[in-house]
Amino acid sequence: MNRRRLMSINLGDNFQVSSLGFGGMALTPVYGPSDPTEALATLNHAVDVGVSFIDTANVYGMGSNEELIAKLLKSRRDEVQLATKFGIASNPATGGREVRGDPAYVKESAAASLKRLDTEVIDLYYLHRLDARVPIEETVGAMAELVQEGKVRHLGLSEVTASELERATAVHPIAAVQSEWSIWSRDVEQSVVPASARLGVGFVPYSPLGRGFLTGTLAAKNLAENDFRRQIPRFDGDAVDANQAVVEVIRRVASELRVGEAEATPAQVALAWLLTQGRRFGLPVVPIPGTRRAARIDENLGAVTLELSDAQLAALDEAADAVVGSRSNTPNWVSSDRE
């Protein structure tokens, strides 16, 4: 067991979580088929080794991800810090997705998530995407009412700008911002990360391993036709070939480091880089890598022991500057589009 290797981190609003979390989206078929029995075993293993901050959303698997996590919570609720999200809804008229942040939908979504999760309270409730039609003050005000009602303990926001975060914190304390952040996704460092540090809000990077690309184990050109990553520009054609250079630098740094008696892995280096960024910016950072396999959780834990030298950090920073392609193909889907 590696439980002793993880310390507790105060994100914001006095919300204590494990120093690495687990992103549940990977347990739904967005990156290919997922076996529910293996998925539940992976979740239990995460908690066994001290990764107790579990992240999901109502839209993952159209609710099935929350239902899966409910099976974990049934016997281990007191061991888990539970985060879920609302705000991305299906649009029956178009067959696509829409964003909703109106107060009625806030309450409706929370009730549905609580039912699927089979729990009385959500520890951290995120607005998944900002609804441009609704002032963020109204959305956060409705979320704050859930706190007053005892249905939610802490509030979070995903993919918000610095100014949106400031407006939200004027309504209610925000425990965490969740946005994509990794060696190849650094746009959040321009505004929202410094704002989070200034406002006392923790940061939860999703896709901290570049949706698997930064691990060096992903053959991007062999992705299944229904793999979500095929929609992301930086996984397309020439871009993915150019971005392989980033992985090579990560591999080289990994070869210079050891975790215990073994050579460090690219995944461990990528996570250690993020933890170092948190110290650079002066704010708590808790990455939430996701995986279907228990062994990957054990591997990820090794990141907390790695110390990167100034030269290694400089090499990784330089590699990050050469990334080709956007991290999203949808206008205004990520905060940098609105900064």
Automatic annotation (TrEMBL):
Keywords: Oxidoreductase
SUPFAM superfamilies in the record: NAD(P)-linked oxidoreductase
Domain of life: Bacteria
Domain NADP-dependent oxidoreductase: residue ranges: 20-320
GO molecular function ontology, one term from the record: oxidoreductase activity
Any Gene Ontology CC annotation: cytoplasm
Protein name: Aldo/keto reductase
Species, as recorded: Psychromicrobium lacuslunae
